[in-house]
Specification:
With 225 residues, the protein is α+β, with helices and mostly antiparallel strands. Helix content is 38%, strand content 19%. The chain is globular. It starts with a helix and ends with a strand.
């Protein structure tokens, strides 16, 4: 029990620090420097993300019965974060039920952790993940104008995706191993489609996306699920 008390005290400490990080935001609401405000927002988000990740680990560590560290309680699956699947040619598709975060100043720990957990769940269900020596990573956001406030690709947290798959689905994320394409499409749904495929299949992927020919489960501009 002492270990559990120490872990809970640690969580309370992290949450307290995260809450304290919001204090600087009020002083910047009238700031004439958008950069300073954006940096403060990302630092606040990062503080809460670290607390959340620690809380995830704590819940797994102390979950009784079917739980325990590294395991999940036996509960109905809820695809609130997203899901993983494979279709035509062995391409791996990850759907995130949210848009990429605005990460101009720091990467998103939450996003990397969420993708890793989705991959864990996929393997735990008996499916095998592919491994590509050279791969194309396509990140395809579907969003409405009202659901997205950042449109510059270089300000989006896509690097968290490559960080999550490095060493697990591809050997590395360097430019000679992993090619990256960031694309988007207007949609009423705010979702992010992430597809990893063999680099040699790149032409086939974009031909499929444009509707030149079909792959089961894949339709023009997105995926059916």
């Amino acid at each position: 029990m002492n270990g559990m008390k120490q872990d809970i005290a640690r969580i309370q400490e992290l949450v307290g620090k995260a809450f304290s990080a919001t204090g600087s935001l009020a002083a910047l609401t009238d700031s004439t420097s958008p950069g300073r405000l954006q940096k403060a927002l990302e630092e606040t988000s990062g503080a809460f993300e670290r607390s959340m990740l620690e809380l995830r680990r704590l819940c797994e560590k102390h979950s009784p019965g079917a739980g325990g560290y590294g395991k999940r309680p036996i509960l109905p699956r809820m695809e609130t974060s997203g899901f993983v699947e494979q279709f035509g040619y062995g391409w791996l598709h990850i759907q995130l039920n949210t848009l990429l975060p605005h990460c101009r100043y720091q990467p998103s720990e939450w996003l990397s952790d969420t993708i890793c957990r989705l991959l864990d769940d996929y393997e735990a269900g008996g499916s095998r993940l592919p491994f590509f020596q050279k791969a194309m990573l396509v990140i395809d956001e579907h969003c409405g104008m009202d659901g997205r406030h950042i449109f510059d690709q270089d300000n989006k947290g896509w690097k968290a995706v490559s960080n999550a798959i490095k060493g697990r689905l591809v050997p590395d994320d360097d430019q000679f191993t992993l090619a990256v394409a960031l694309i988007s499409e207007k949609s009423e749904l705010n979702v992010c489609h992430i597809t990893l495929l063999d680099l040699s299949d790149t032409a086939d992927f974009f031909a499929t996306r444009s509707g030149d020919y079909a792959v089961p489960g894949f339709y023009e501009g997105g995926w059916e699920h």
